[in-house]
Amino acid sequence: MAETSGRNAIGLIAAGALVAAPAALVVNDQAANVATVLTEKWEGTKTVPYRDLVKKWTVCTGETRVEMRPYTLGECRAFLNAAIRGDYGLGVLKCTPQLQHSVYQLGAAISVAYNIGVAGYCGSTMARQFKAGDWFSACQAFALWNKAGGVVVTGLVNRRNDEMRACFTNLPPEYTLTVKVRA
Asked: Which residue range is the domain that position 101 belongs to?
């Protein structure tokens, strides 16, 4: 860490050059609840390992990153809570920090990321539209992620419709329409 003399630091403060550090990224309880309800509904919870639609070993609530063995419902809930507040929730917030205080949009985005992965979400039209301030189009873009193994799956269509409904819930008016003007 570089040292700054007291005199220089005061000069920086006086010049307004020091700004507050950005707030830590945290998935709030309400958004975590929205994500949990959506994820549990569409992933289901099975305490014994099974192969999912694309033949990947899975256990609990769509969990693929743990040892494949039987778990209790409590253990499965703990995995889901940790994933939503941890890797998936923080991953969504790192690439779309503007969602931090938007309960339904963040919850829906976490549910999508849980299903398609953080990298998939962060590279998606959804994330690009949220970052561009066109949240209405971002919510509509959820529908693009309706395939497994290159095939449209009715369950994914239904899941994305559910996530889109959540995304459109309490959508701030300033984000419902972005006028696009070409020069």
From this structure: 24-168
